[in-house]
Amino acid sequence: NWNIYSVGVGLNQKIGQSWYFTGSIGTSLQQGLNSSWTPTGSATIMKTMRRGTLSAAYTRTEAAQVLLSSGYFDQADLAYVTRVNSRISASLGLGAFRSVDTGSSERGKRAYANISYRWIRNLAWQFGYSFSSQNGAQRSLYSGDTSYFSVGLNWVLGHPTAN
């Protein structure tokens, strides 16, 4: 048998006219070998602007290796989303992640860019690129550099807003 215990508190707050903050802090315990309470939490700050939104986030969670480790996983992300005009929107993002005091001790970086072009009322073309680089103490399926391109047609159900 194994159990996970977690406790925490959170806060959502608008600051002024265009800043937003959300955060949580807590602790988790994965019962088993090498059990100890691990601090966890997250924080996101977002700034809305005339043409887009800029956000920065940090998250720390307990490692997902039940009974094997008392380590943790954390990541930081920065993203920008903008609406270029009534038909085109774009997003860009950067991130970094790592696992600490786990068997694999992975770490890596990632970046992505997406463009959406609303072609007709309910259809939009989606173009995307993402890159990630990951390494760790143990070789895994996700080690090394990975690039990913995507092109697709997105069908939005319902009644989208007018042009």
Q: What is the β-strand count?
A: 9
Order of helices and strands: EEEEEEEEE
Shape: globular
Approximately how much beta-strand content do the residues carry?
over 45%
What are the segments in which pLDDT stays under 50 over at least 5 consecutive residues?
A: none
How many strands, which pairing sense, and closed or not: the largest β-sheet? 9 strands, antiparallel
Please state how the strands of the largest beta sheet are arranged side by side. Answer: 1-2-3-4-5-6-7-8-9
Distance between the termini: 57 Å
- Per DSSP, the total helix count is 0
Q: In percent, how helical is the residue content?
A: under 10%
Radius of gyration, whole Å: 20 Å
Mean pLDDT: 85
What would you call the structural class? mainly beta
How would you portray this structure in words?
- With 163 residues, this protein is mainly beta.
- 0% of the residues lie in helices and 67% in strands.
- The protein has no helices and nine strands.
- The chain has strands at residues 4-15, 19-30, 38-48, 52-62, 72-83, 88-100, 107-120, 123-135, 144-155.
- The protein has a nine-stranded antiparallel beta sheet with strand order 1-2-3-4-5-6-7-8-9, with no helix packed on it.
- Strand 5 and strand 6 form a beta hairpin.
- The termini are far apart.
- The mean pLDDT is 85.
